[in-house]
């Protein structure tokens, strides 16, 4: 696994074994859930060879606090239950290529500095590159965003070092959907023409430290995401990935995601490279199931 790139915080459904090169009209019409990434105002840097897997970056509009901008979804009791699931979540002993094991858990305050370095490094030279301070602000916000969002870190158990990070969002409000009360950007998903369902878990901002790539870190962290979503009552996970990034696409396909729809670049601010486009992908976790994350157990 390299640094991951889903056109993300953008979500995903079923993926195909080989990405199609022609435009496919989106087959879902769920509300858009991603907000646009503001320009950093810096000159573009030359793109590196595409050996990174990067999930698309999501940027928050500066706010007083996460709690003031994310509209509450679900009852107080259910939200507290979900926070408990996220806080107590942890998986360890996941084997890595070449030896060693990976652990996955919810990001803590002490992880923010190294997680910022991992994410900044992973997106450097890509269209999603952002200033380090902006990445740090995004991750700091994640500490207060539960249960609407959860930021997981992958930790090399031999060195106890954070080597990967990924974000899952569980509500339209958290993703800044245009129709979400209290949304943090009001512009919805970065891929409005290929939205993921508003009630579906959405994976984005997957990044792996360069020195840890090629060992299966990303694959292991994706497996941990699957388990957390299941524990929270989710039935599938969605994401977006750049069609110009075959390594990222291959990673998600290998993890069980299928292409739901694709769209070539037109005049989308999120996809600036010539000939770029996105694929909406989904992984089914519970066959025939439905997402009931914020529903009370007797309502699910």
Helix content: 10-25%
N to C succession of SSEs: HHEEHHEEEHEHEE
Largest sheet: 5 strands, antiparallel
Mean of pLDDT: 76
Instruction: Return the structural class.
Output: alpha+beta
> What is the radius of gyration?
17 Å
How many distinct beta strands? 8
Shape annotation: globular
Total helix count? 6
Oligomer: single chain
Beta-strand residue percentage? 15-25%
Low-confidence stretches: 1-5, 7-69, 177-190, 268-272
Distance separating the two termini: 35 Å
Give the strand line-up of the largest sheet: 1-2-3-4-5
Give an account of the 3D structure.
There is one protein chain. By secondary structure, the protein is α+β, with helices and mostly antiparallel strands. 22% of the residues lie in helices and 19% in strands. The chain has 6 helices and 8 strands, in the order ααββααβββαβαββ. It has helices spanning 66-69, 76-88, 112-123, 132-142, 217-232, 246-254; strands at 90-95, 101-106, 149-156, 161-169, 202-208, 236-242, 258-264, 277-284. Strands 1-2-3-4-5 form a 5-stranded antiparallel β-sheet. Strands 6-8-7 form a 3-stranded antiparallel β-sheet. A hairpin with a 4-residue loop joins β3 (149-156) and β4. α3 packs across α4. It is globular, with a radius of gyration of 17 Å.
């Amino acid at each position: 696994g390299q640094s991951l790139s889903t056109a993300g915080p953008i979500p995903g459904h079923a993926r195909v074994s080989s990405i199609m090169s022609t435009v496919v009209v989106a087959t879902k019409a769920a509300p858009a859930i991603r907000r646009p990434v503001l320009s950093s105002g810096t000159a573009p840097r030359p793109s590196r060879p595409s050996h990174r897997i990067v999930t698309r970056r999501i940027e928050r509009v500066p706010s007083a606090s996460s709690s003031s901008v994310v509209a509450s979804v679900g009852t107080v009791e259910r939200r507290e239950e979900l926070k408990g699931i996220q806080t107590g979540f942890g998986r360890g002993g996941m084997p890595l290529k070449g030896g060693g094991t990976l652990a996955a858990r919810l990001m803590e305050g002490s992880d923010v500095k190294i997680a910022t370095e991992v994410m900044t490094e992973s997106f450097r030279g890509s269209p999603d590159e952002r200033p380090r301070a902006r990445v740090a602000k995004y991750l700091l916000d994640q500490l207060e965003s539960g249960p609407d969002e959860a930021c997981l870190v992958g930790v090399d158990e031999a060195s106890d070092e954070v080597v990967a990070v990924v974000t899952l969002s569980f509500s339209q409000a958290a993703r800044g959907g245009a129709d979400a009360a209290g949304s943090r950007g009001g512009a919805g998903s970065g891929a409005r023409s290929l939205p993921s369902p508003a009630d579906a878990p959405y994976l984005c901002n997957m990044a792996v430290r360069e020195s840890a790539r090629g060992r299966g870190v990303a694959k292991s962290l994706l497996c941990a995401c699957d388990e957390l979503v299941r524990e929270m009552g989710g039935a599938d996970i969605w994401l977006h990935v750049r069609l110009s990034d075959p390594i990222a696409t291959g990673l998600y396909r290998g993890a069980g995601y299928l292409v739901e729809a694709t769209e070539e670049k037109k005049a989308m601010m999120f996809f600036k490279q010539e000939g770029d486009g996105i694929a909406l992908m989904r992984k089914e976790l519970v066959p025939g199931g439905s997402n009931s994350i914020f529903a009370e157990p007797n309502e699910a």
